[in-house]
Design a protein that fits this description.
The protein is α/β, with parallel strands linked by helices. It is about 35% helix and about 20% strand.
Length: about 500
């Protein structure tokens, strides 16, 4: 058992997946036909001829083998998810529920070929209940990022300027709460909100009420504290002004503030808007200058938070952004966790192709995916369920890997976006290996999981077999077989077995 992990009973049978077409970018394998050997939940070197005679053989010929998917940024447990089920009960039932039950969440991820997930925003005082829910999440290794920078004691420590004390406090909070990393959601935002300061735009240098702090200082000092605390994943950042026109400038300032130490920018699609209003002439994409800076500063990584059209539920650890959206749309919403340290807003939402703003969100996310030079610094996400359900990942993968399909989809959206979006001039198509990078290899590496995201000896035997199909959405929606720790958990869209999976927690 690795430090910080709960136990997991893996299948001890020596097994070989024979003759599969292997995509393992971490080891330079791009569709190479070969065998994958595993035993006791781990991938191993090919055994001796004598041992092979007793092995269980699985026919892999004609199938594509990839590591199990790793979702670096999702929302699957905790009070905000429960609130999402309450506010939208019609979206919490059925096989494609926007906010499925805990058991259904594990089953659906597994049937999609995913074997690891992180919940990206848990208030520290909710960590206990979130951990119990993670324990009930089947067929996945799972962890959570704690909103430690919302805690009063942490803010006071950051304000005092004692970097050693802040690092100790942050490390103690994450390890005591069985967390994996620290997430910042709108630095200082909960304090502003509780003080009734809920204006539209906020600057990184605005004074945080009651503290000798600004959002920029919170970012800088929390980033250093996370690095000093030795947590597996770097600071996970949701910056200020989420969803507001013109917020690309704030995102650029955030990148500049964080550059130098490792940092991960969350759901950047929601932070990449130009303009000063929501009309057709003002609103648009601010991606180009952000990609230029990002490409030139390799200490930064990001996930996109792609919007896809349809019904879902928004849930963000940022009550300011949720309240603004609710007032702008007239949609009912709820805020909770404010009696704790952080704040979270929850509301139903329907993304529509002909909506100017929604179409821009769709196009801006794809522009990010198709413009970043290095896929190893980029993670596929929809910020489930904020931009779309994780079951929409296969559709997103087809949009990235099939230019003609993407152009047909572009032809249906709001005409102003079709005319003005840079997406119309991008012809790039992701290869299968690049899709493997952004869904497996890169998120595992960014999260600090050396045993995930690859198929080399020592890796967890989390393996997904797909049937090749020119329709990538069909290919990735229905894996032929999914192994979790060497155990067959899903086959042809059906869950065959439930296993507990490990709790991924930062070690002491």
């Amino acid at each position: 058992m690795r430090p910080g992990e709960s136990t997991f009973a893996a299948d001890a049978t020596l097994t070989c997946i024979e003759g599969a077409r292997i995509h393992d970018p971490a080891h330079g394998r791009d569709g190479v036909v070969g065998d994958i050997w595993f035993e006791g939940g781990r991938i191993i070197e090919p055994p001796s001829a004598e041992r092979r005679a007793a092995a269980s053989i699985i026919a892999g010929r004609g199938l594509v083998a990839m590591p199990g998917g790793v979702d670096l940024h999702s929302h699957v447990v905790g009070p905000k998810v429960a609130a999402g089920r309450r506010i939208s009960p019609h979206l919490a039932r059925g096989p494609v529920a926007a906010v499925p039950t805990i058991a259904a969440t594990g089953d659906l991820y597994a049937s999609l070929g995913y074997t690891t997930v992180f919940d990206a925003a848990i208030a520290t005082t909710s960590a206990g209940i979130a951990r119990m829910e993670l324990d009930d999440l089947p067929n996945l290794d799972k962890g959570m990022y704690l909103l430690a920078a919302d805690d009063h004691d942490v803010l006071a420590s950051i304000a005092s300027g004692s970097e050693a004390e802040t690092a100790r406090l942050v490390g103690d909070i994450v390890r005591a709460g069985a967390g994996w990393a620290v997430k910042i959601a709108n630095p200082g935002g909960a304090v502003f909100w509780k003080q009734g300061l809920r204006g539209d735009h906020r600057d990184l240098d605005d004074a945080v009420p009651g503290f000798d702090l600004t959002p920029r200082r919170i970012l800088e000092r929390t980033q250093r504290a996370v690095a000093a605390a030795g947590l597996p994943h770097c600071l996970h950042v949701h910056t200020v002004n989420l969803g507001l026109p013109g917020n690309w400038r704030t995102t650029l300032e955030t990148m500049k503030t964080l550059d130098g130490l490792r940092a991960h920018l969350a759901h950047v699609q929601f932070h990449s808007y130009s303009g000063g209003g929501l009309d057709a002439e003002a609103f648009g994409s601010g991606v180009t200058p952000l990609v230029e800076y990002f490409d030139a500063h390799p200490s930064l990584t990001l996930d996109v938070g792609q919007v896809l059209f349809g019904d879902t539920v928004a849930m963000t650890g940022d009550s300011t952004a949720a309240e603004h959206l609710a007032h702008a749309t007239g949609v009912p919403w709820m805020s909770h966790d404010l009696h704790l340290e952080g704040g979270c807003g929850v509301m139903p939402i329907r993304y529509r192709e002909k909506s100017l703003v929604h179409a821009w969100q769709w196009a801006i996310g794809l522009e990010w995916f198709l413009s970043v030079a290095d896929p190893w610094r980029l993670v596929l996400s929809t910020d489930h369920p904020n931009g779309a359900h994780f079951l929409a990942y296969p559709l997103l993968m087809r949009l990235l890997g099939d230019e003609s399909f993407r152009r047909e989809a572009l032809s249906r959206i709001h005409p102003a976006v079709r005319r003005k979006s840079p997406l119309a001039g991008i012809s790039r198509q992701y290869t299968l290996n690049e899709l493997c990078i952004v869904t497996r290899a890169a998120p595992a590496r960014i999260a600090g999981l050396p045993q995930k995201g690859h198929l080399g000896p020592g890796a967890d035997a989390d393996i997904t077999l797909y049937r090749p199909d020119p329709d990538l959405s069909r290919m990735f929606a229905m894996p032929a077989k999914v192994f979790k720790g060497g155990v067959l958990v899903a086959e042809d869209g059906h869950v065959r077995r439930r296993v507990a999976g490990r709790l991924l927690a930062a070690s002491s």
